[in-house]
Amino acid sequence: MFKNYIKIFFRQLFKNKAYSVINIGGLAFGIAAVLFIATYVNFENSYDKDIAASDQLYRINLTSFADGKLMQESSRTSPAIGGIAQNEISGIEEMSRVVILGESIVGHNNNFVRELQIFLTDPNYFKLFDIEVVKGNTSEMDQPLTVMISSSIAKKVFEDKNPVGETLAINSSNFDGSVDFKVAGVFEELPENRHLKPQILISYATLHHFIGKQIDQSYDWLNLYTYVTTGKNTSIEQLNDQFNAVLNKNYGKQLEASGSEWELGLQPVNQIHTSTNYAGEYEAGIDGEKLQYFVWVAIFVLLMIYINSINISNTRAHNRVKEIGVRKVTGGTKKQLFVQFIFESFMINLLAILIAALILTFWAPFLVDWFNLNITPEFFKPTQYLGILVVLWFFGSLISGFYPAMLLTSFAPAKILKGNFNFKLKQSLAKPLLVVQLIFCLVILSGILTTYFQLDFIRNQELGLALEDKLVVRSPMLFVEGSGNYQEQMRNAMTSIEGIKAVAATNEIPGNEIYWRTDEVFVEGKEKGGNVFTYLHVGDGYFDVFDINLLAGKSFNTDLDYGQEAIINEKALQSLGFSEPSEVIGKKLHLNQGAVPVVGVVEDFRQQGVKAEVDPAVLNYSPGDLNYYVLDVEKGKIEELLPVVEATYIKLFTNSPFEYYFLDEHFDKQYKSEKQFAQLFSLAAIIAIIIAVMGIVGVTTQLMLQRTKEVSIRKIMGASFQDILLIISKEYVWWFTICFAVGIPVAYLLFTNWLKSFIVGIELGWWFYLIPAFIVVFIFVASTLYQSLKTALVNPADTLKDE
Amino acid sequence: MIKLTDIDKTISSKFQKEFILKGINLEIEEGEFVTIMGPSGAGKSTLLNIIGLLDDASAGQYLLGEEDLTSLSDKRKAKMHKEHFGFVFQAYHLIDELTVYENIETPLLYRNVKSSERKSLVAEILDRFGMVAKKDLFPAQLSGGQQQLVGVARAIIGKPSILLADEPTGNLHSAQSKEIMELFQKLNDEGTTIIQVTHSEDNAKYSKRIIELEDGAIVKDYNSQEAQHA
Question: Ranges for the ABC transporter domain (chain B) (predicted)?
Answer without folding.
Answer: 2-230
